[in-house]
Amino acid sequence: MHGILELSLQLLNSLYPASLNGGHGAQIPIHGEQNVKPTPTTKTSGIPDYFVTDDGHFQGPTQTGAAPFLAQTNLAPFAGVSYIPNTPLETQMPIPGNPDNKNIFQSLANLSPYFPNPRGFGVNEYPIPPGANVTWVNMVHRHGSRYPEVSGEAAERTLGKKLTDAAGKFTAHGPLSFLNDWKFLLGAEILVPNGKYELFQSGTLHYYQYGHLYSNNGSKIVVRSTTQRRMTESAEYFLAGFFGLQWTQNATLELAIEAPGFNNTLAGYKQCNHTNWQVAKDGNTKWTRKIRQRLINR
């Protein structure tokens, strides 16, 4: 779940501010990082090594999940509201005892698909003061929605293994009958299709917000990301949304190596043993112990 990408724009013009069989498919195996290369984005001749993004090194584990088949499995959208915006994910399931039509998929913490906070960021939105001009934007962006970590400690894999190991030892009924032949079909580490869509959308949104800051005089901005495949592709999809598919004419992508022993200001957890790995896991463990019994009693 780690990694960020960075984009800076400056105003240079001072005059203006697998097939389904019985409902299940085989999981696609993990590939070695040297066997999968992203689509080349820059030419390697005549540019410094640190701007080369198509050598395929240090991508981390890659695994594509089973292809979706909503045309078969999603018979009709569940109309929780009168108008449902176009979205590639089905998130309108009727929940018994939910009279307010609240979307349960927006209550899954970090596992929820991205959605804007309806309450904003705690402050009201106002236009910039009279006489002020926006001349610079420095943006740090999260990668898009992704598959779980390849580690067996990932919560999704832990739950998936428990359900798989219990196959044949129980019989589920009613709405839970799908558990009788359920299989874990998620990939690992890389962006899910919706994650690519999120970054492209974000790039388009940022273009509408800040496109005027790009001088478009033949110069290129520098965009930084890391070598993990989800991070590289997050930057590429954002840039495609911002500039279009010809983004390499407008931006140069610099990738910091995401591996132990390399200086990486965008993913410092591989250089420091006391970062969020330790802190987050310890906090989660304490919180789980605190609320576990209350959850069981429910």
UniProtKB/TrEMBL annotation:
Keyword annotations of the record: Hydrolase
Ranges that cross the membrane: none
SUPFAM superfamilies reported in the protein's UniProt record: Phosphoglycerate mutase-like (SSF53254)
Gene Ontology MF annotations: acid phosphatase activity; inositol hexakisphosphate 3-phosphatase activity
The keyword Acyltransferase belongs to this UniProt entry's keyword annotation: no
Highest taxon in the source lineage: Eukaryota
Enzyme class: hydrolase
EC number annotated for this UniProt entry: 3.1.3.8
Database matches in Gene3D superfamilies: Phosphoglycerate mutase-like
Pfam families, sorted: His_Phos_2
Family label: Belongs to the histidine acid phosphatase family.
Protein name (Swiss-Prot/TrEMBL): 3-phytase
Species name: Cochliobolus sativus
